[in-house]
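Expect chain and fold; thus:
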Amino acid sequence: MVQHIAVEPEQSGMQLDEFLARAFPEVKKSFLRGVVRSGRVSINGAPVWSSHRLRENDVIGLELEDDEIAAQERSLNALEAPLVILAENEHVIAIDKPTGLAVEPERDIERPNVLDGLVELSRSRGPGLLGRGEFRPRLVHRLDKDTSGVVLFAKTLEAEQKLREGFDGGTIAKEYLALVEGEHPLDDGARAVIDLPIGPDKRKSGAMCVATDGKAARTEIAVAERFHGYTLLVARPLTGRTHQIRVHLAHEGFPLVVDPYYGRRRALLLSELKDDYRKKRGEQERPLIERTTLHAAAIEYDGVDGTRVRVESPLPKDFARVLKQLGKVRAHRR
């Protein structure tokens, strides 16, 4: 049986093997590459290699039987803790992503991730809303591995199309909490928009930077809470560029308190905040937080039926712990 899959605009430029791995998360990538090498995959009717770059509206033809897929299902890496579902209906499922967990399988690395966790959840539930054959989690946006918070997955093609249109059209609103260095001068209750283009940083692999030849990027910010030497900001990305909030805030002189790429720390210690801190003899100080101080707190979208939906993610323990300590030892001085 030949299956046909159309390439969506946001998948343009993706390598074929990556595309197939996302389309069939329950199957090992090595098996899918073998299917390509055997000539059972075509693009617009022509044979291709695994490294082929896809273009919008390409039609992928795949000779793969359902029982063949079932025989090749990989043993998914077990999550340390079950996924927390924030909201779910017949079309969309919202997951509370913990920090340190990738949203989807990492390239050539077999580690637990949210997408695998959803596939495993589908298997455990059996036939039904998340039953195998009815639901394949469709990732419609991403969070950085070290960012916590709400992430959406479409459960149906109809929902996937609706959500992608929402992201492309700017009707989906995302809200982040960002703990930054410095006391931001923005007045309480006021909002400001950082409007600076972003592109790849040629000096640092994998990093982004503000660049005149980059893509348009806009981030709205407001002050949520003030501390002595630090500020908790609400950041609302109005566009969807890689590392957008982190790059914009760092460029403005207010980098995340913890950010190995754009800030100056990999972790925050209590001794850095508390002047009279005394470590117990023979005891190593444990970080208050050792991941980027960025949390995807909420997302709003239009459902398939047109209803406006808001999903919120509670503040994780490590983030809440930092804010509590800042309130104690770095209270804002008026």
Residues 157-169 form the longest helix (13 residues). The domain at 170-274+286-329 is CATH 3.30.2350.10 (Pseudouridine synthase).
